[in-house]
């Protein structure tokens, strides 16, 4: 395939960025989107030009690092995939593809297509953990009965990889889906009840502190989420937050 790529180039967080056009040829449908960018970068390096900087790690849809806005959609036109799982067969010969970093105040651009998503880490650090009894009187986790539906819902919430697609898809750049998934995976289990009150209050407070917007129930976050995290988690977090606020 022959393609025209319009890629956001920005030297650093303070520089003014712009879209630059790159023609590319010889792209196969079985290539992943990141492999296509590898081909482009090899060409740029051979020409003595600076390669396009983009984030990636596992390339298996697990790490959540490959945060790209492709033709206006987080992770591109396919569903339930990350950018590294997006294949070039989703595009046609002669297409123009616009590639940008995720756009959000809380995700400042570091360089080119790489954004700083450590705001997610700070939200997690604010309460995304459980107490562990290491006094010598530990209890076997398998001895604690857990309702099957609660266990399944908790597991589904825990599949969130923190990629930030929910934020990029939201017109308000809200992190409610991410935060609610992290709250839900603990709130649904007996092990998570110890810090339940502090957890939701602290994580929501940190989310607001980071500058994320509010949720207006548009639903774009769930549609674009590569792991299909449900909006039900936001409703659950709202209930947890109300309950915690009344206790406080």
TrEMBL record:
One of its GO terms (biological process) is respiratory electron transport chain. The keyword Metal-binding applies. Residues 151-181 form the 4Fe-4S ferredoxin-type domain. Its EC number is 1.3.5.1. InterPro entries: 2Fe-2S_ferredoxin-like_sf, 2Fe-2S_ferredoxin-type, 2Fe2S_fd_BS, 4Fe4S_Fe-S-bd, Beta-grasp_dom_sf, Helical_ferredxn, SDH/FRD_Iron-Sulfur, Succ_DH/fum_Rdtase_Fe-S. Keywords: 2Fe-2S, 3Fe-4S, 4Fe-4S, Iron, Iron-sulfur, Metal-binding, Oxidoreductase. Binds 1 [3Fe-4S] cluster. One of its GO terms (molecular function) is electron transfer activity. Its cofactor is [3Fe-4S] cluster; [4Fe-4S] cluster; [2Fe-2S] cluster. It catalyses: a menaquinone + succinate = a menaquinol + fumarate. Residues 1-103 form the 2Fe-2S ferredoxin-type domain. Pfam families: Fer2_3, Fer4_8. Belongs to the succinate dehydrogenase/fumarate reductase iron-sulfur protein family. NCBIfam families: dhsB (TIGR00384), PRK07570.1 (NF005746). This is Fumarate reductase iron-sulfur subunit. It comes from Aequorivita xiaoshiensis. The lineage of its organism: Bacteria, Pseudomonadati, Bacteroidota, Flavobacteriia, Flavobacteriales.
């Amino acid at each position: 395939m022959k393609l025209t790529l319009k890629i956001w180039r920005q030297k650093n967080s303070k520089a003014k960025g712009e879209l630059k056009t790159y023609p590319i040829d010889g792209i196969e449908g079985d290539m992943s989107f990141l492999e296509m960018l590898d081909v482009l970068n090899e060409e740029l390096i051979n020409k003595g030009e600076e390669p396009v900087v983009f984030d990636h790690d596992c390339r298996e849809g697990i790490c959540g690092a490959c945060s790209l806005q492709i033709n206006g959609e987080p992770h591109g036109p396919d569903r339930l995939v990350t950018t590294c799982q997006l294949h070039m067969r989703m595009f046609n010969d002669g297409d123009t593809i616009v590639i940008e970093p995720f756009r959000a105040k809380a995700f400042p651009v570091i360089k080119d297509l790489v954004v700083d998503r450590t705001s997610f880490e700070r939200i997690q650090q604010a309460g995304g953990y459980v107490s562990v009894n290491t006094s010598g009187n530990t209890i076997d986790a398998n001895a604690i009965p857990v309702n099957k539906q609660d266990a399944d819902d908790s597991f589904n919430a825990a599949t969130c990889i923190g990629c930030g697609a929910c934020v990029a898809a939201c017109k308000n750049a809200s992190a409610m889906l991410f935060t609610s998934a992290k709250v839900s995976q603990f709130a649904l289990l007996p092990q998570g009840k110890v810090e339940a009150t502090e957890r939701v209050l602290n994580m929501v407070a940190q989310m607001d502190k980071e500058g994320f917007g509010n949720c207006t129930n548009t639903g774009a976050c769930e549609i674009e989420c590569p792991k299909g995290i449900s909006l039900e988690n936001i409703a659950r977090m709202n209930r947890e937050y109300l309950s915690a606020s009344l206790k406080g």
